[in-house]
Fold:
Amino acid sequence: MLYNKMDELMKQTPKEKEQSLKVKKTLKLPVVRKVKDPPIVKTKPLHPHLPQTGGAGGGALVLLVAPVKSGKSTLISNLLLNPDFYGQDYFDYVKIMSNTIMNDVTSRFIRKAFDVTDHYDEAELQGLIDLQASYDKEDQPEIAYICDDLLGSVPRNSVLNHLCARFRHYNFKIFVISTQNFKAVSTITRQNATNVIIGSPYPNQNELLKIADSYGDLVGGQQAFLDLYKTATPNKYDFLHLDLQENPIHAYRNFEELLMVGDKWVVGDHDNFDVVDMNKDSDDDDMDVDLKKSKMKKEI
Structure:
C-alpha cells in the first residue's frame, strides 16, 4: 500500500504537485488547544495563598502534619470559620471525624457549627460518598471533610484511603487529613496531596527528616527543605505551607508570605531572611462567629 502511494506521488505532473502544495498551505496546523475551564461556581474569591477549591471538578487534598500543641486545632477552626479563609458559609456541608475533638477546648466552635463524629466511621463515610454519587454531577453539594488524628484507627484498605484518589469525583472541595505522625500517612495520600502543611515546633527530628526526604526534591534537596522549614517557622505556631497545585510548587510562611517558587528563593538572602511576626492571638474567644449547624439536603 505504501509503495503504491509513493508510486502515485512520483507520477504527479508539475501542475498536480503545485496544486497539492497549495492545499497543504491552506490547512491549519493541528495545534492542541486548552479546553475552556468551566465557570467558577463560588462567588466568594479565595486568597491565592489558600488551598484552591476551583470550579467544577476542582478541589484540594490538604495533608496537615503537626506535633502536639502546635496550633493544629486553631488552624482548622480558622479554615472553616474565619471569613478571611473559607468561612462557615463557603461549603454546603462540613463533616469532621476526630478522635480528640470532644476533649479539645479550641475546637468548641467547630463542634457547634458542623457535623462531628468522635471516631472514624467507615460506614458513615461510605454513606456520604454514596449520597454524593446519587446526585447529578452539577447538583452535587460542595463538601468539606476533615479527618483529624484518625490515621492510627484507619485500615489500610479503607474507604478513606481510596477516597484520596477520587475525592474530586464526589465533589469533596477540601479534604483535610491531619496527623501527628507522618509515618502513618499512606502512600496514596502523599501522592494525591495538593497541599502539605507542616506545623511547628517539630521536636522529632527523625520525623522531620522523613518529611524532607519525601518533599525535598521539589525545593532543591533535603537540606534546602530543612532550610526552608526553618525560615518558615521562626515563631511558635508558624507553619510551612507547600502548594503542590502550582507547578513549580509555591512555598509559604503560614498563608502569608511566599518564600520559594520551585527551588528558587523569592525574597532576599534566605540565610538572613527577616520574617515578620504574625502577632497571632491565641485566645479563641476572639473568633467572632455566627454558628449555624450545616445540614445536607438529603439525610445520610
